[in-house]
Design brief:
It is built from 13 helices and 17 strands. By secondary structure, the chain is α+β, with helices and mostly antiparallel strands.
């Protein structure tokens, strides 16, 4: 069969769509598998890190996702190869090898992402996914393109400037409504008052932590920056004494420890009381804290109902502790301090995962396990020195302050790590469950996530406004008013809703980010929409 060298307009459109789907497939794979792109340099050699990192397991959810992930890539590449008159067999081999190469590249890059896990099963399932995309193209391409082009023709006949503006305004109102509706899902209103307070393990005794804790206090209000500085530079919690709910001095190994505020029950030793010469992080400081390990931990003799109810009522907390890990590589996360009943139900848990600090906080958003998302502060336990840690939460923003104890009474104020759970962040995590839920609280990651929080709102607005822009032909003054109403005002309106929910002032940085994302979306989409509206 001889092909006509002059392609029909429909075939040209097919070729263009195949190329666009191929590009989209690559971008989607890189975006979904490498987010938030916070690569870390390995401690050893790169080759050693790669070889030793492919021992993880994939669950059924990951396997199903992987079988879908590479379908657009395989579909689009099949269209490109057909355009070049590559036969079925050769195309199948080329797409399989290309999918294998792209998947292997992604899995190797994931080795250097702290919140990702690389597996050989993922490479196999991704390769199969790319081949499935190839099969879908060859057996269903006519149906796909006919349906796609029919929908585009119907949409073009139906859509006009008035409808585009109406949809734009409706979406903007809907987004504002959603932001209002999620304003309470980051509160601490779902805390369970039946849980005990534990140190060094879970109530089920299967998440032990090895180290020392010398002090712990907790309050039902978020401490100010000045108060936190005082907390980190001292060995006590006097700066927040007016709203303390508990204050335990854990120096030495005893059978029980009393709360100095007399609000909570005693912490009682569980298991075998260790000797002083036991498993201690720092020899010169061994008398400073209770020794915790897989054979010894602490828990209150009953639930800490008063603490739970007070914090649940205010939806704020300040937690301060001084601790040192005996092992820079503990998994679980190993429980340092936990208000929980088992490994999957908690109000909060401060733990150690590898040499990172892990913090889980229960809210309606993060759910019963407090891990959607889970906050990770990297390399806190890279040494076995004592660290003074202060954690505050005001209902919207989690802050983790890391200080280091240089001597028994002198501390250095360290870094502060923030996780924003404001309405736009809550909206993002509510609808984007596909993303990894372990968030490393470093500046590059936080910038990426903040951009995503805004993108989920302003990218659809930009797409809708691009249709309005390319459809309308009017005078310059009216065009300026449309731009003002379509780009600038939505950013101010959305920020106004968020500021109202959080009871704070407008933040110009958030407004500028929204304007920038919508503008970039408009500029990127207008040519495509213009070509679509001009097409037959």
């Amino acid at each position: 069969m001889t092909l006509n060298p002059l392609k029909s307009p429909n075939q040209v459109k097919r070729d263009e769509w195949a190329k666009n789907i191929f590009v989209f497939g690559i971008v989607a794979v890189l975006f979904l598998t490498l987010l938030p792109f916070d690569f870390e340099k390995p401690q050893g050699s790169y080759l050693q890190e790669i070889v030793t990192s492919f021992g993880h397991h994939s669950d059924r959810t990951d396997l199903f996702s992987n079988l879908l992930l590479f379908i657009p890539f395989g579909f689009g590449l099949a269209g490109i190869l057909e355009k070049r008159k590559i036969g079925f067999g050769k195309a199948a081999i080329a797409i399989t090898i290309s999918s294998l190469f792209l998947s292997a590249t992604v899995e190797i890059l994931q080795v250097f992402l702290p919140e990702r896990a690389s597996t050989s099963i993922d490479i196999i399932s991704n390769t199969i996914s790319g081949f499935l995309g190839f099969l879908i193209f060859y057996f269903f391409k006519d149906l796909f393109f006919e349906l796609t082009f029919w929908l585009l023709r119907v949409g073009k006949r139906w859509l006009n400037v008035k409808w585009a503006i109406a949809i734009f305004i409706t979406y903007l109102i809907f987004i504002c409504f959603l932001l209002f509706s999620v304003r309470d899902i980051t509160k601490l209103s779902n805390w369970d008052a039946s849980y005990p307070l534990l140190f060094g393990n879970e109530l089920t005794a299967d998440r032990p932590w090895k180290g020392q804790v010398s002090q712990f206090c907790i309050a039902d209000r978020a401490a100010s920056k000045t108060e936190v500085s005082q907390l980190l530079e001292s060995s006590n919690c006097d700066s927040i004494s007016n709203f303390l709910l508990a204050d335990y001095d854990l120096n030495g190994n005893q059978k029980s420890y009393s709360d100095r505020t007399q609000n909570l029950p005693d912490l009682v030793s569980q298991g075998t009381l260790p000797k002083k010469s036991g498993d201690t992080p720092v020899e010169s400081l061994r008398d400073r804290g209770v020794i915790l390990n897989n054979k010894h931990w602490l828990q209150t003799i009953e639930s800490v109902e008063k603490l739970t109810k007070n914090i649940s009522k205010t939806s704020q907390l300040t937690l301060v502790t001084t601790m040192a890990s005996a092992n820079p590589n503990q998994e679980g996360p190993a429980r340092i301090i936990s208000l929980s009943k088992n490994p999957f139900a908690r109000n909060f848990t401060l733990g150690q995962e590898g040499n990172d600090l892990s913090f889980r906080l229960r809210t309606p958003l993060t759910q019963e396990n407090g891990a959607d998302p889970e906050s990770i502060v990297p390399n806190v336990f890279a040494d076995t020195q004592f660290h003074r840690v202060a954690i505050t939460y005001d209902g919207w923003i989690l802050k983790i302050y890391i200080g280091r104890a240089a001597t028994p009474k002198e501390y250095r104020v360290g870094n502060v790590y923030k996780l924003q759970l404001s309405p736009e962040a809550a909206l993002f995590w509510s609808v984007m469950g596909i993303f990894d839920k372990k968030i490393h609280l470093n500046p590059p990651s936080m910038w990426v996530y903040q951009s995503l929080y805004s993108a989920i709102i302003f990218v659809p607005l930009g797409l809708l406004f691009a249709i309005v822009w390319v459809s309308y032909r009017g005078n310059l003054i009216f065009s300026g008013l449309v731009i003002l109403g379509g780009i600038i005002l939505p950013a101010f309106l959305v920020e106004g809703v968020i500021a109202s929910c959080m009871e704070r002032s407008l933040q110009m940085g958030s407004i500028a980010l929204g304007i920038a994302i919508e503008t970039i979306t408009i500029l990127g989409a207008r040519n495509w929409f213009s070509a679509w509206l001009r097409s037959d």
